[in-house]
Amino acid sequence: MSTQIPDDQALHAIALEAGARLRAGHHMLVTAESCTGGWIAKVVTDIAGSSDWFDCGMAVYSYEAKQAMLGVHPQTLEVHGAVSRETAIEMVSGALVHSGASVAVAVTGIAGPGGGSVDKPVGTVWIAWKRRGGYARADLFHFDGDREAVRRQTVAAALLGLDGALA
């Protein structure tokens, strides 16, 4: 059985719920996105009133952007690569440092169709969450499907995973 790929309606519903939790906790969200290219921020800002709980989003595709906008260390990228637990954690921490938000989510992965390897096949995605003053948590996902399917699943998992940072 294949995984259910969230459609636009499902992503909207997930974002609505995330927004309600953020608003209830008086939190502001920042996103740091690589493989989703700003899709998390787009889904969030499709919701009227999201300015109450969404601070900003950063789409950081290149190594240079990850370093300049989020403070990811060059050594981290050289040793572990962009798609790694270490990079995801530095991205999520940097997003909080470079924003006024209280909660952050960062995603980095290989959406395909190319770019994968034996160690990091297409569909490999690291997602990290952090609350200001707290510790970052990063989880590894292996999503199936084409580029859009991997990205849709990443957006959903990133927003659903906010629960851990808000607890």
What report would you give on this structure?
- This protein is α/β, with parallel strands linked by helices.
- 43% of the residues lie in helices and 19% in strands.
- The protein has a 5-stranded mixed β-sheet with strand order 2-1-3-4-5, with helices on both faces.
- Strand 4 and strand 5 form a beta hairpin.
- Helix 1 (8-24) packs parallel to helix 6.
- The relative contact order is 0.19.
- The model has no long low-confidence stretch (mean pLDDT 96).
How many alpha or pi helices?
Answer: 7
Q: What is the helix/strand order?
A: HEHEHHHEEEHH
Question: What is the oligomer described by this structure?
Answer: single chain
How big a fraction of the residues is strand?
Answer: 15-25%
Structural class: alpha/beta
N- to C-terminal distance: 32 Å
> Are there runs of 5+ residues with pLDDT below 50, and where?
none
General form:
globular
Percent of residues in helices comes to 40-55%
Mean pLDDT: 96
Q: Note the main sheet.
A: 5 strands, mixed
Strand order of the largest sheet: 2-1-3-4-5
Compute the CA-based radius of gyration.
15 Å
Instruction: Tally the beta strands.
Output: 5
Domain CinA C-terminal: 14-162
Pfam family, one: CinA
Protein name: CinA family protein
Organism: Luteimonas kalidii
